[in-house]
Amino acid sequence: MLATVVARLVQMAFVMFGISVLVFLIFFATPGSDPAARIAGRNASPETVEQIRHDFGFDRPLPVQYVVMMKRLFVTRDLTSFVNRGQKVIPEVLDAIPATLSLVGGAAVLWVLGSLAVGVAAAALRDTAVDRGLMILSLIGISAPVFWLGEVANLLSQSRYHDTWLFSWVPGLGYVPLSESVSGWFKALVIPWITLAVLYIGIYGRVLRANLIEAYSEDYIRTARAKGLSPTRIMLRHALRTSLLPFITMFGLDFGALVGGAALLTEVVFGINGIGRLTFHALQNLDLPVILATVIYASFFVVAANALVDVLYAVIDPRVRA
Amino acid sequence: MSPLLDVRHLRVTFTTDGGPVTAVHDVSFAVQPGEVLAVVGESGSGKSVSLLSVLGLVDRRRTVVEGEATFRGEPILGLSERALRRIRGRDIALISQDPMTALTPVHRIGDQIAEQIRAHERVSRHAARDRTVALLRDVNIPMPERAVDRYPHELSGGMRQRAVIAMALSCNPALLVADEPTTALDTTVQAQVLDMLRRLSAQHGSSVVLITHDMGVVAEMATRVAVMYAGRIVETGTVAELFDDPWHPYTWGLLDSIPPLTGPRPRRLPSIAGMPPPPGRTEPGCPFAPRCRAAMPICRLPPPEQVAGGHRALCVLDAPTRAALRPPRVAA
Amino acid sequence: MTAAPLIEARALTREFVLRRSWVPGSGQTLRAVDRVDLAVHKGETLGLVGESGSGKSTLGRCLTRLIETTDGAVVFDGQDVTRLGTRGLRPFRRSVQMIFQDPSSSLNPRRRVGDILSEPLAIHSIHPAREIPGRLRELMDLVGLPAAALDRFPHEFSGGQRQRIGIARALAMEPRLIVADEPVSALDVSVQAQVVNLFADLRERLSLTYLFIAHDLGVVRQVSTRVAIMYLGSVMETGGTDTIFDAPAHPYTEALLSAIPVPVADPAARRRRIILKGEIPNAANPPKGCKFVTRCPYAQDLCRAERPALRPLADGRLVACHFPPS
Predict the structure, then answer these.
(1) B199 in helix, strand or coil?
(2) Measured distance CA(C321)–CA(C326) in Å, rounded
(3) d(CA B186, CA C217)
(4) Are the C-beta atoms of residues C100 and C61 closer than 8 Å to each other?
(5) B192: nearest CA partner in chain C
(6) What was the pLDDT predicted at B332?
(7) Is residue C324 part of a domain?
(8) Is the CA virtual torsion B280, B285, B290, B293 positive or negative?
(9) C-alpha–C-alpha distance, residues C83 and A166, integer Å
(10) Total domain count for chain C?
(11) What is the Cα–Cα distance from C60 to C100, expressed in whole angstroms?
(12) Is residue C325 domain-resident?
């Protein structure tokens, strides 16, 4: 087991190294573009460009450039943004992480619980009105774009019905750090959580229902029924457990991507300054140092989430453990 | 002696996209305490469906089960799922065909057996585990104290089937329904498992319904036989009656088409021409008539039932005609 | 044995890698076929019998060059075909055809039977195009299907009929050797007898040679002129069908035969049942010495120490046992 974990960590480090090289090559070694000029920004004086070229080692071979870049990113942590000059990249990314983690983590709790409920209920009441109703609702949830849903939620809670008893508790848009106020954090995030989770409840609920129905046609479910077990026990212990593998795979990919910045639309709609927004602005301004940092950061989460999925696999399915 | 399980006029109809399809037509049989009844037939003959529908293990939303069935004198057909649950596993247990898929892959063998014990009896976790170990020892699983903590994929097919049998016996059921219990096993392992099944069912005093397609297994295991064809029991009797004096031409065909293991080899095996009718056939006549070498015009009418003691067959042929028509059996 | 061997396995070995390892020697390999010498002579039917893990299917696939051989040689009609490439193998591919257990998975569900059968004819240009329709009808007739079947799709047929189509496809190439891997084990008894008879008829009419791989000893006895019994990758006993079935010499053959339930009501008419101890060992880790030693009721010290070679008995059969009955 320990060997597996170590092997997995080495693999992770290797993947992340590969990603950093790739990103570096794309942004800094594309033929025909001068990275020094790009880092210097628009209308920079030739002296500045020359200075940057020297600082970053752009006049030296590529491997050296890469090492210098990584050193400034991770060791000295003094890589600065060129759009907001003087703004250090690493603290900027670190500042954005809590907001994104709060948003995605909370939404993930909601969507896991929500889709488990939807999938289990629909499969248990298969072919009834409840099943059909849940499946239609899921489809609607999947089809509703998150920015539209978010704007509607804002419209209702921030202006139209803000003064009624229903939404008077809703604070203005933006993120409230957990360290500042727990209730403020919760109030600020509850509507974004729901908005982000709706899509995933729909997808995961439908996938889970399909997997459960497949599981119910397996011999071991018939065995469980022939043993005289209760329907609840059959569902939870025998059918659900074996149906969770695809669910977990999807969760790993989605969670990693969202924490890595894919929650951008939700962050923008609700004015949350998270990784998504940071990446988005960096891309708009071609702020290469920030892009480099956020992409490597995102890749870390995707790779880490997938490693976690592998561990969960082994916990759930003994066949994977061998 | 009153029968343990008495099924009368069982009729099972599936709702399919192409309309209702009747898989079992007017099937009646009884299982006496302590006996082994073999239900024989080829795939699609309705042999599994008959038993599973009595146990309520068919998809209820897509199946109509008609007729009567009593277990220990109490009606069992049409019982609620809740009432059936108390019977299943405790009074009637099922052993299914494929040991590779019959156990839930994510739970330990021991937990799956103990779970059944605890579903029916108020015993502690610890006591259930002790009983499980004893059961695994009974079915000759080596090192049962360690095997309880194994997952199904860690055991061979033969060992898994032993675990399934241990599970079926765990609550001392009055009736064991074994659905092709050794079909998926190798020959030498099949011999071990059949031997053990015979010993343990006697020890636990369980009656057995053995569903199989293998006439050899029938001869070794059963006291009585019911032969099914196209959803009907076409012949039933004791093993001696059926093997030594089969009445129905389909039973002849089943017996004669088995390649013998000793004696002279026939140049060609006697075989039954054609193939079984598709499910859902509705003609009133004998379902076997199109393949029967003894078929006569009268076979287009519903076949009469001939009875002599416990030996019954759905066929018009009388003894002299049978003797004249059945080819001499190659000496065994 | 007067007829020349049509196909021969010479010290044929096939290994599968179970787990690769960077450290040499620590990976795990499974020797599915272990230095097997076996010949199928012209005009005979060799029945290859064994339980799971015996390597009988793997041997069949090596002989047809469906999979590569790890070591040893496949000799067809005097020519070593083990290392031949695609081009050199062409005549071999035509002469040796394989029939599988489940014909439906090898028949393209979207093509009509006629198209499935005519494709190999066209590829190997066996017949001029105008003769193909006639040849197809002939093939249908050979396997006992109506000519109308040519215009239908595989799923419209029952299991037995699909197996007939599979046989017709093999026959289309006018092969000299047919390797049939469990061709009747998925069929119901009554249909199985029809297909077994078909194999016998075809051999007579087309003077074919068969390697018939099956686990059902009754079926093998019915179709074979000679049998070979495999256990854990090795041939334990081989010889004439009646020789072996009437008096098995290897303890494994004896136990295997006795384990088959016989459809006779009278218990006195049965063989003395030998119930073997234990399970078939894992093929990746076979016992030292004789491979059957862990389950053999007659095992002695020599059996645990040394693996017996196949040796001839007086009646011509070969047995891999230190203590065969004299």
Answers:
(1) helix
(2) 12
(3) 12
(4) no
(5) C275
(6) 40
(7) no
(8) positive
(9) 80
(10) 1
(11) 11
(12) no
For tokens 């059945």, name the residue: B326
CB atoms within 10 A of CB B172: 12
Are B98 and A219 an interchain contact pair (Cβ–Cβ within 8 Å)? yes
Of C202, C199, C169, the closest CA to residue C183 belongs to C199
Would the CB atoms of B115 and A127 count as touching at under 8 Å? no
**Best residue in A126, A128, A212, A227 to probe B by mutation, most B CBs within 10 Å?**
A227
Chain A closest CA to B90's CA: distance in Å?
7
Other chains touching B, judged by 3 or more CB pairs under 8 Å: A, C
Domains and CATH numbers, chain A: 19-89 (no CATH), 103-321 (1.10.3720.10)
Min Cα distance C163 → chain B (Å) is 13
Mean pLDDT of chain C: 90
Chain length of chain C: 326
Nearest to A238 among B93, B94, B104 (CB): B104
Query: What ipTM did this prediction achieve?
Result: 0.89
Tokens 């960590």 sit at which residue?
Answer: A9
Q: Identity (one letter) of the amino acid at B137?
A: R
Residue C326 confidence (pLDDT):
65
Domain residue limits, chain B? 96-172
Count of Cβ atoms closer than 10 Å to residue B160 Cβ: 24
Mean pLDDT of B216-234: 94
Q: Give the whole-angstrom CA distance, residue C161 versus residue C140.
A: 11
**Max CA distance (Å), chain A:** 83
What is the tens place of the pLDDT at every residue in A160-199? 888 888 888 888 888 888 888 899 999 999 999 999 999 9
**Left, alpha or beta for B15 (phi > 0: left; psi -120 to 50: alpha)?**
beta
Window from A122-131, B250-259, C225-234, C268-277 with minimum mean pLDDT? C268-277
Note whether residue C203 is domain-resident: yes
Residue C326 lies in a domain: no
> What's the pLDDT tens digit per position in A102-158?
999 999 999 999 999 999 999 999 889 999 999 999 999 999 999 999 999 988 888
The strand pairing partners of C195, in sequence order, are none
Place of tokens 């096939």: C14
Chain B residue with CA closest to C156: the answer is B278
C249: CATH: 3.40.50.300
B11 phi and psi angles, rounded to 5 deg: -140, 125
> Which amino acid appears at position C39 of this protein?
A
